[in-house]
Amino acid sequence: MKNSDLIFELLDISKSVPLTVHEMAEQMVVTFHPVHQKSERLNRFSARLKEAFIDLGVTVLPWEEAFRDDEPDKVKEGVIIIEQGEGADDQLAIRKVSSLYHNPVVNIMDASPPIPENPTLQETLDSIVGVLAWNLAHVPIFLEEDRWTICTMNGAVIECNNPANPKEDILHSLIPKLAAQVMPPKRDEIIYRENKFDAEKMGYSSYINDFMEAAKIWRDNGLMLAHTSIEDLEYRNRFYKRIVSQYLDHRTGMSYGFLVKQLPTVVKPAMEGASTHWKNGRMLRREGEKLYATVFALDKYWKIEIPDIWLLSTRSGCNKTDLNPRRDILRLGLKDGEITLDVPPESSKKECRPSYDTYAILAHATGNLIVASILKALHPDASFTESLQENGLSISHWHGYPNEDFPLPGYTLHGFTNPPVSCSTPQSAAYAFNGKFVSMKRHNGDYSSYRGDIHVEPHHGTNITGSMTLAESASWVDEMHEMELPAKA
Questions:
Q1: Residue-wise pLDDT tens digits, 64-122
Q2: Beta sheet of 338-342, edge-to-edge order
Q3: 2 or 41: whose pLDDT is higher?
Q4: For residue 412, pLDDT beyond 70
Q5: Spatial contact of 260 and 361, defined as CB atoms under 8 Å apart
Q6: Residue 447: which pLDDT band, with cuts at 50, 70 and 90?
Q7: CA 420 to chain CA centroid, nearest Å
Q8: Residue 301 and residue 299: Cα distance in Å, rounded?
Q9: DSSP SS3 for 456
Q10: Structural contact between residues 155 and 130, judged by C-beta atoms closer than 8 angstroms
Q11: Given a cut of 50, is residue 485 above it in pLDDT?
C-alpha cells in the first residue's frame, strides 16, 4: 500500500489511479474520429501519434468499435477521441461523447497556436480558452514545420520540438494530460452548510485581512490570472455555448489560482510502528470517535490521529485579486471524513460550486497535518508544527514557477519530475500529498527551521505551503519576479 492510497481513501477516490506515465499509457483507450481535414502534415502526425500510442501500450480502438451498446451514437465513457482538422458544426466529436469529463477530445490542427506576440499570461490563457470554446476540444494540438504545441484549459502551452519523432513528448507531455482525467467533486459529494459561517463573528478577522492584503499584491504584480468570462468567448452557436457552461458547472467563467488559510488545530504526536494491514487493507481506521491513519515517512511507519481539518478558501470562480470577503471567502473542511463547505454570509449554496482544486487543497492540508504530527514526535520544537497549532498555515497557488536561484529559507522544493497533469485530477491530489513527505525528508538541517514546501506542478503552476502568511508568500513571488530570474520549470 502507498501513501497515495490514504489520500484517495480520505477523499473517496478510486484507488485504481495510475501515477506514472507508463501506467497511464497502459490504462488509456483512444479512438480516432473520421478525418475532418487532410494535409500532408496532419496525416503524417496523426499516423505517428497512432503508432506511438500503440508502442506505448495505449489501446487504440477502431472508430466503429468505440461506441456504447446501449447508445450506439455515443462513444463509451473513458475513451479519448482524437480529431484531425476543424470540423463542421454538426460533425464535431463533442456530439459523440457520453461524458464531458470522461471522454476527452483532442483536436489536431495544421496551424500555429493563436497566441499574440509577447503575450501576457492572461492573453495566453484567453487565446487558448477561445480555441477550446470554438472547437469544443479539451486539448488542442497545433502543428508547425519544426514543432508541435499542446495547449490545455489551465493555460499550459507545451512546445514539442521534434514532430518527426514525437514519441517521448507524447509519453511525457500528452499522455498525462489525457489519462489523468479532470474530476472535480460532484455537488452531492459535498456537505453544504448555510448560516454556519461568518468569519468576523468567528474571530477570523486577522486571516481575512491577510487574504485582502495578498489579493492586492497579486493584483498589482499581475501574476495571478484573472477571471475569464464565458460571455466574452466566441461560439459556433448557442448549443455549443451551453456545452461549455455545462462543463464548467454553469459558472460564469474560469478563474485561476487560489488562496487558502489552513486554520490552527491541535496536533497529536505520531506513533511509530503503525500496522499497515488494517481491516480490509484500508489505511484509515476509527477507534471510538477518533480517526487514525497509517503512513510511511522518513523510512518508518506511523500512526496519526486525523482530526477535523478546516480551511478558509477563496470561492471557486471569484476574482482572486479583487475579493469581497463576505462573498468570496468560504470555509472548507474534512469533517468526520466528509468534504464540508460552509457558505459565506453573502453567498449561496448555488454560487459555491466545487473548485477544480478542491482535491489538491484538501490533500495539501491533510499532508500538512501529518507532517506536523510526525515532526512533533521527533522534534518537539519544530516550527512547522508550532505554526499549524498557533497560527495555521497558508497555501497559495499561481500559474508560474519558482526559481532554484531564489531559494526561500526553510522551504523545500519538490514536484519538478512529476507527470504534468491538469488540476482537479486524482493524480494532482496524490502528488501534492506525497510531496509533503518528500519535502520533509529532503530538508537539510535542524527541523526547528523547517517552514514548509514549494510544490511545482509541471505545465500547471506552483503551490507554496507553510508558515508564511498569504501576503508574505505573495510578496516573495513578487520579489522573485522583480529579480527577472529565468524560471526552470
A1: 999 999 999 999 999 999 999 999 988 999 999 998 888 999 999 999 998 888 887 77
A2: 191-193, 338-342, 329-335, 309-314, 258-262, 393-398, 461-466, 452-457, 411-414
A3: 41
A4: yes
A5: yes
A6: confident
A7: 10
A8: 7
A9: strand
A10: no
A11: no
Based on the number of CB atoms within 10 Å of its own CB, is 71 exposed (0-12), middle (13-18) or buried (19 or more)?
A: exposed
Q: What is the DSSP letter of 319?
A: -
- The answer to whether the beta carbons of residues 148 and 116 sit under 8 Å apart is no
C-alpha cell at position 391: 497560527
Looking at the predicted structure, is the pLDDT value of residue 1 above 70?
A: no
% of the chain surpassing 90 pLDDT: 65
Report the C-alpha gap between 427 and 424 in whole angstroms.
Answer: 8
Strand 452-457 with 411-414, pairing: parallel
Residue range 320-336: average pLDDT?
94
List Cβ neighbours of 313 (8 Å cut-off, separation of 6 or more): 258, 259, 260, 261, 329, 330, 331, 332, 355, 361
- Range from 138-147, 205-214, 222-231 carrying the lowest mean pLDDT: 222-231
3-state secondary structure of 352: coil
On whether the CB atoms of residues 30 and 80 are closer than 8 A, the answer is: yes
- CATH 3.40.225.10, the chain: domain bounds: 187-482
Q: Where in the chain is the domain with CATH 3.40.50?
A: 19-179
Instruction: Give the CATH number of domain 19-179.
Output: 3.40.50
pTM summary value: 0.92
Identify the pLDDT of residue 281. 65
User: In the prediction, which pLDDT does 153 show?
Assistant: 77
Query: Long-range contacts of range 154-158, CB-CB < 8 Å, 24 or more positions apart?
Result: 154/256, 154/399, 154/422, 154/423, 154/460, 154/461, 155/121, 155/124, 155/125, 155/128, 155/225, 155/256, 155/399, 156/420, 156/422, 156/459, 156/460, 157/113, 157/115, 157/124, 157/128, 158/420, 158/459
CB atoms within 10 A of CB 474: 29
As a whole-number percent, the residues of the chain with pLDDT over 70 amount to 93
- CATH value of 187-482 in 3.90.380.10, 3.20.20.140, 3.40.50.2300, 3.40.225.10: 3.40.225.10
Output DSSP code: residue 1.
-
User: Stretch 214-222: mean pLDDT, rounded?
Assistant: 91
User: Which one, of 441, 392, 433, lies nearest residue 412 by Cα?
Assistant: 441
Query: With 0-12 CB in 10 A as exposed, 13-18 as middle and 19+ as buried, what is 297?
Result: buried
The answer to whether 261 and 214 are in contact (CB under 8 A) is no
Q: What are the φ/ψ torsions at residue 308 (nearest 5 degrees)?
A: -60, 140
